[in-house]
Amino acid sequence: MKSILKRSKVVITRFAPSPTGVLHLGSARTALFNWLYAKGHGGKFLLRIEDTDQARSNDAFTQSILSSLRWLGLPWDGEPIFQLARQQRHQEVAVGLLEKGLAYKCYCSPERLQNLRDQAMASGQQPRYDRKCREHAENQNSPFVIRLKAPLEGQTTVQDEVQGTVTLENSTLDDMVLLRADQSPTYMLAVVVDDHDMHISHIIRGSDHFTNTFRQKLLYEALGWTLPVTAHIPLIHGQDGAKLSKRHGAVNVESFKDQGILPQAMQNALLRLGWAHGDEEKISLSKALEWFDFGGLAASPARFDEKKLWALNEYYLRQLSAQEVLQLLDLPPQAVPEKALQILPELQLRASTLVDLKESLLLYVIPERPPLCDKIKALLTSEIQETLKAFTEECLRDDTPLNEDAVRKWATEKGLPLGQIAKALRMALLGQTVSPGIFQVTQTLGPQWIKQRIHKTWEELTRTV
Asked: Residue 415's Cα: distance from chain center in Å?
């Protein structure tokens, strides 16, 4: 039998998404847990693209998934493995079982199988194939599938790191299909063969796959292979207790990235969905690598709280240096980096996301500010305009930077509250009523930009009149 990797005793995990959509939060958490467990044990984290559903698989989704994993900081070892390219290997394994008498050809028509399902459902029973072709196959000239000969008696036990030890009667497990009539492999066959050939030591996946594990174990045993260690983690629910879905809002990594969420915040939020280390809430990826183990996994579903994600994002945004933030923001060519570095530390304290931060920063790093909105124009009363005019004529005579002490002295001489001057300047310079300290604003903008923006304010107010 062919093998993808040389067999070793190192921990090897895998993430195996289907490229039928972008990376869902639940899948991203699965990838994170697999990555942490492998890397925390000095092992390998492999990526397998399960693209056998050709009707729904799309290369654009594959590229989106790869991009999201890179953004999350979860690099994989080696090249991605594409399941579709391994169909011949899957077929060889099924035929090998057939030749050994451990599988058989089933000629039952789709109509007969549907009738069996309908009868079972009508009687309140679990639909299950009746093994009609197991010993006495008929219609040998008809299309056939290959089924596994599952044990008719006894029990199958799975010892799971999260779900515990669970035993099922083999009488409840039917003879699953390995190869379809068109000779394409089923998911159950392909995943077992690929996990074996990739030498996966630990399978960490959603609890919705737990029932599959019993049937897959039968296939492992028929092939003489060892089932990897399994850990089936609970699904993620929304705050209403229902399984997380589109009706809960954004549920994929790409969407949150576009909203300005940092990868550090997403890592932390995903980590806390079903795993804990004492009372720790803010856990960096480096700490997670040190602490992550199966003992911290919960057996009950975790609830995704988007508000906690935003709070984490604010926290991690404030941990970054101005230079680090600047590298994350795609600023226009005309932006002045020196001005950005000057004002960013203050703006980081006021922003929730990178999108918020960029929107605020653009007011300070390009010469032109956006046109004044009607609300700001209405607030620029004649009294405020007079204050602004006097300030311009007497405090902005040349290109000398504004001196805070001089401005305060001028305000005292004129009998003007400093707050009134600051209010007028904020609206004229930024088109806003709230900003960092006004002298920090003017220092960042500089005298030339201040003059240009005040002149623009006069033009806009004149056009309004």
From this structure: 56
Identify the CA nearest to 159 among candidates 99, 207, 214, 220.
214
Distance, CA of 38 to CA of 42 (rounded, Å): 6
**pLDDT interval class at 464 (50, 70, 90):** low
Tokens 């040389």 identify what position? 6
Among 372, 402, 368, CA closest to 462? 372
Number of domains in the chain: 3
**How do residues 237-264 score in pLDDT, each as one tens digit?**
988 888 887 666 668 999 999 999 999 9
In the DSSP assignment, the letter for residue 131 is -
For residue 2, pLDDT over 70 is answered with: no
Specify which residues 147 forms β-bridges with.
104, 177
Q: Which residue range is the domain that position 275 belongs to?
A: 246-322
- DSSP code for 13: E
Q: Which two tokens stand for residue 361?
A: 């920063």
User: What whole-number distance in Å separates Cα of residue 10 and Cα of residue 38?
Assistant: 9
State both tokens at 233: 């983690």
Domain membership of residue 352 (yes or no) is yes
Q: How far is CA 386 from the centre of its chain?
A: 53
Is beta strand 44-49 parallel, antiparallel or unpaired with respect to 81-82? parallel
Which pair of tokens denotes residue 355?
Answer: 């999108």
- Which residue type, as a one-letter code, is found at position 315? Y
Does a structural domain hold residue 163?
no
Residue at 45: amino acid letter: F
Task: Give the type of residue at 420.
Answer: Q
Strands 236-237 and 302-303: parallel
The closest of 228, 256, 210 to 28, measured between CA atoms, is: 256
**Structure-token match 């847990």, residue found:** 33
Residue that finishes a domain, picked among 292, 322, 352:
322
**H helix intervals, 248-321:** 253-258, 263-271, 285-291, 306-319
